[in-house]
């Protein structure tokens, strides 16, 4: 695969999760400044946890975050798995690009990616890509488990659009 761009200020926010990761046993009455490396390490840990929660099988996963770029390394079974993991990483707040270096055991054609715009629905996106709004379930399924509900997409979110 290659490098994919994302909207840095869109995606799931870490909020308290970053505090918990960085300040594990810290005195909560003290103000602590988070240095950029601590933030990068916390983002990498969060991405790794989100990937594990996604249920997509990956061997030897390594996640490295530098500035706003996440690099994924490891091995997955299919191109679809690699693309889903790219979306898991890229749809996190603060990540602007993902360098997907995952090795794919069974290569297949790459899907397209689409950034959700204001007013979009999965039906509207399906109409645009497939010429038929009723084919939105294909997009929904291609983006599970990141999407739990076909009506809950947000502006700036990147979606995987499988070939028709």
Q: Care to describe what's here?
A:
The protein has 2 domains: 3-106, Alpha-Beta Plaits (2-Layer Sandwich), CATH 3.30.70; 112-161, LysM domain (Membrane-bound Lytic Murein Transglycosylase D, Chain A). Helix content is 33%, strand content 24%. It is built from 5 helices and 6 strands. The protein has helices spanning 16-22, 36-54, 79-90, 122-130, 136-142, and strands at residues 3-5, 59-66, 69-78, 97-106, 112-115, 158-161. Strands 1-4-3-2 form a 4-stranded mixed beta sheet. Helix 3 links the parallel strand 3 and strand 4. The mean pLDDT is 86.
Q: What is the 3D form?
A: globular
- Helix count, DSSP H or I runs of 4 or more residues: 5
Number of DSSP strand runs: 6
Q: Which ranges are low-confidence, i.e. pLDDT below 50, for 5 or more consecutive residues? A: none
Number of domains: 2
- What string, H for helix and E for strand, traces the elements in order? EHHEEHEEHHE
Helical fraction:
25-40%
Mean residue pLDDT: 86
- Provide the gyration radius in Å: 17 Å
Strand content: 15-25%
């Amino acid at each position: 695969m290659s490098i994919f761009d994302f909207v840095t200020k869109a995606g799931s926010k870490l909020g308290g999760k970053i505090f918990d990761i960085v300040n594990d046993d810290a005195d909560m009455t003290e103000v602590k400044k988070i240095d950029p490396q601590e933030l990068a390490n916390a983002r990498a840990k969060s991405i790794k946890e989100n990937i594990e929660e996604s249920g997509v099988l990956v061997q030897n996963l390594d996640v490295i975050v530098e500035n706003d770029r996440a690099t994924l390394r490891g091995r997955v079974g299919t191109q679809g798995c690699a693309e889903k993991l790219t979306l898991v990483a890229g749809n996190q707040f603060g990540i602007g690009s993902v360098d997907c270096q995952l090795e794919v055991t069974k290569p297949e054609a790459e899907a397209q990616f689409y950034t959700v715009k204001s007013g979009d629905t999965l039906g509207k996106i399906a109409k645009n890509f497939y010429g038929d709004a009723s084919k939105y379930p294909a997009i929904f399924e291609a983006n599970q488990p990141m999407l739990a509900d076909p009506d809950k997409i947000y502006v700036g979110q990147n979606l995987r659009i499988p070939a028709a």
